[in-house]
Recover the amino acids of this structure.
């Protein structure tokens, strides 16, 4: 157990250790620490340099579970006196830690040397100021050596025997960390007693700290706190399977319907694109009101529609607009389970945070849906981890957000996700039907399986198989579509479930949707009935179709409404025409009518020399030109206009937050390239070893720079041949090795003296 100031000691060379590793061990390292392979290192020496850098070590620490992190912190604390053996570590921690030290060694965070466990040099700084919850030593706090400090278990027990109860409680709270307590300017009696009896040290007017020696003595024979070896799985409510599947199906159907309604709304009424690229909060709130949804829930619908490629941007003279993309045209006609499966596959790897829409940045700027600021690199990782946490409980169990967060915190003890993010992702999973009544569905478990990292990356057939398996699983939970509705006397009707396509078309034609959900409610009105009659239906035909799908006889108010609207319908005939065509020679228009490539324009004769078309004037002019017929576009006053070179292009999908292309090479290829680079460097070093070593003045210049803490430019043999230059700060210099800090890469490296060609002050030629 450490009880005195740390002593300096030599540490093993990480590069030398990595050079002895086989391919399997290197592959494990690169897969557990993927940042080391991007971009691929040029050699094993370069890999070791990157693995020891502070930034990479910090990322590795964030992935450690609680027992492994505690083990690592224990090694670092013990190594401040002397690197421990495995037996010394086990004794200090109070359990067998061999599994954790093996993993830490495989991650290149610990280096075995002469039977001892040596932490890489940057670990102490990356772990923060209080490893294992221990504060600074008495000497670091500026306390002069003197008697009276309880630095042995016996002395602590003796002090506590005389301490008042508030002092005992405060010492218990600080013993296992954090070691710093905050008080007001009026120090409470318990803290005052601890200060007066040399147990605490005052760091500032409001901060008190428990010195390390006192904390270790208070801990007795145990260095580290007890940490569970398995993640916590507290009791959680268990739902019935029928409830889970029913809630899941209801949520999935509702979300798909909301996306379809959103796309249809923006197709007919596009919304402006903000300067930031998103959609305005005002437009989002108006749409949320019409959809009868909270704005946060609608933001998820909007973002998922964008991620699925159903939204695009159209630009005209008035600006840019969010609208439906060309990919959205056929989307409603696709298989329901297939659409649902595609949505889940998009979500699980999604780097967007829709729940942040409507919140403000640190500068007070309002975040908008669909804008780039909602992108977060950690989002897809946390999404998957939340599903994995849910899957850890028994089937149909529904843990709370707090329980899920505690489970996640065990797996990444140094990077526990914030509770609001966990709550938001659980809400997303519920909206997507991945959970039902709070419990993970069989489809949710299957989604984890078919998207397992490395399982199908780059293999299109396996990805497609996974999508088909997921769609098949979802199809079993979707209830059959309903073919009937309940028409009520107040001119409303209820569709008790998902309408089959024919019923949906009829309802959307003759009624207006008032509410969506498990039971869709619609209302008949004069305007909606007129819309149905405008489509070409006669009153009796319309009533007959309604009778065929109504569970009960049609109420008289609805029949009266249809007949009343029909009596006034069609008194004046109005037709839609997007353009007219006129010619002095009726034969010219006859050729246009007879041309087989122009039937899509919807041409009709209204006079011998005049045709009308459903298409707009520019489309008609382009179609005539493509068919080889002369046509001149004219303005309202009859003057000729210049025909634009091309017709308007279709609206292409804009996917905010679409994942970048797959980076880099496969891990085996990266390892092969590193070994080849290391071999080239070895051959160069062997050639240089036969030459005389660096001049004495070169080593002296490095020693001077080390003593002054100055930076120099080090010119040396490169790992891939040739010469490379680095700006470094020499740390230690002896005849054979020079340990330096690479200033630009923020990494410590050790350079063999025979590799050095010259040393120059920074900035010289």
């Amino acid at each position: 157990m450490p009880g005195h100031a740390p002593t300096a000691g030599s540490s093993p060379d990480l590069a030398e250790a990595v050079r002895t590793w086989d391919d399997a061990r290197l592959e494990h390292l690169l897969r557990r620490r993927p940042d080391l392979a991007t971009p691929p290192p040029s050699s094993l020496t370069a890999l070791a340099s990157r693995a020891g850098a502070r930034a990479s070590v910090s990322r590795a620490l964030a992935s450690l579970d609680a027992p492994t992190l505690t083990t690592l912190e224990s090694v670092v604390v013990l190594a401040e006196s002397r690197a421990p053996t495995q037996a010394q570590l086990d004794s200090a921690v109070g359990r067998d830690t061999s599994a954790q030290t093996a993993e830490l060694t495989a991650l290149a965070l610990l280096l075995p040397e002469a039977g001892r466990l040596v932490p890489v040099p940057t670990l102490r700084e990356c772990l923060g100021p209080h490893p294992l919850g221990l504060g600074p030593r008495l000497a670091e706090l500026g306390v002069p050596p003197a008697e009276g400090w309880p630095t042995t278990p016996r002395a602590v027990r003796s002090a506590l025997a005389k301490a008042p109860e508030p002092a005992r409680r405060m010492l218990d709270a600080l013993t296992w960390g954090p070691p710093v307590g905050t008080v007001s300017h009026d120090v409470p009696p318990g803290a005052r007693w601890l200060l007066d009896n040399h147990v605490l040290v005052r760091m500032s007017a409001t901060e008190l700290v428990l010195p390390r020696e006192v904390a270790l003595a208070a801990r007795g024979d145990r260095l580290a706190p007890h940490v569970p070896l398995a993640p916590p799985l507290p009791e959680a409510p268990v739902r019935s399977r029928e409830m889970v599947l029913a809630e899941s199906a209801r949520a999935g159907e509702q979300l798909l319907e909301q996306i379809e309604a959103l796309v249809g709304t923006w197709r007919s009424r596009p919304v402006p694109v903000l300067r930031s690229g998103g959609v305005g909060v005002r437009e989002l709130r108006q749409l949320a009101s019409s959809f009868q949804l909270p704005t946060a829930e609608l933001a998820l619908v909007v973002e998922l529609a964008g991620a699925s490629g159903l939204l695009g941007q159209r630009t005209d003279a008035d600006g840019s607009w969010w609208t439906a993309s060309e990919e959205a045209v056929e989307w409603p006609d696709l298989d329901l389970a297939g659409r649902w499966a595609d949505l889940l596959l998009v979500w699980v790897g999604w780097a967007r945070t829709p729940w942040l829409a409507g919140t403000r940045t640190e500068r007070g700027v309002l975040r908008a849906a669909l804008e780039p600021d909602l992108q977060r690199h950690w989002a897809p990782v946390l999404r998957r981890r939340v599903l994995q946490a849910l899957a850890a409980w028994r089937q149909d169990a529904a843990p709370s957000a707090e329980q899920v967060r505690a489970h996640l915190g065990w797996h990444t003890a140094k990077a526990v996700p914030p509770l609001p993010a966990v709550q938001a992702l659980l809400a997303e999973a519920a909206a997507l039907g991945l959970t039902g009544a709070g419990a993970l569905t069989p489809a949710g478990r299957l989604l984890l399986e078919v998207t397992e990292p490395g399982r199908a990356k780059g293999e299109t057939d396996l990805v497609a198989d996974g999508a088909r398996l997921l769609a098949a699983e979802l199809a079993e939970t979707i209830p059959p579509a309903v073919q009937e509705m309940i028409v009520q006397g107040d001119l409303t009707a209820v569709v008790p479930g998902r309408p089959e396509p024919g019923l949906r078309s009829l309802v959307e034609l003759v009624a207006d949707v008032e509410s969506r959900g498990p039971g869709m409610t619609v209302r008949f009105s004069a305007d909606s009935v007129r819309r149905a009659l405008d489509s070409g239906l006669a009153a009796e035909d319309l009533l007959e179709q309604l009778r065929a799908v109504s569970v009960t006889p049609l109420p008289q108010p609805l029949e009266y409404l249809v007949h009343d609207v029909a009596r006034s319908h069609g008194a004046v005939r109005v037709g839609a025409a997007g353009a007219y065509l006129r010619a002095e020679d009726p034969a010219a228009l006859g050729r246009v009518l007879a041309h087989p490539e122009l039937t899509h324009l919807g041409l009709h004769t209204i006079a011998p020399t005049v045709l009308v078309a459903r298409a707009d004037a520019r489309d008609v002019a382009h179609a005539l030109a493509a068919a080889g017929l002369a046509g001149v576009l004219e303005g309202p006053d009859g003057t000729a206009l210049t025909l634009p070179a091309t017709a308007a292009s279709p609206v292409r999908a804009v996917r905010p937050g679409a994942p970048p292309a797959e980076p880099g090479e496969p891990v085996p290829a990266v390892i092969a390239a590193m070994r080849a680079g290391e071999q080239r460097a070895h051959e160069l070093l062997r050639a240089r070893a036969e030459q005389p070593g660096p001049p004495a003045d070169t080593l002296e210049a490095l020693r001077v720079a080390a003593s002054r803490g100055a930076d120099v430019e080090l010119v040396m043999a490169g790992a891939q041949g040739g010469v490379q230059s680095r700006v470094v700060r020499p740390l230690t210099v002896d005849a054979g090795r020079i340990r330096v800090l690479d200033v630009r890469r923020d990494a410590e490296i050790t350079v063999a003296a025979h590799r050095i060609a010259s040393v120059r002050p920074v900035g010289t030629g």
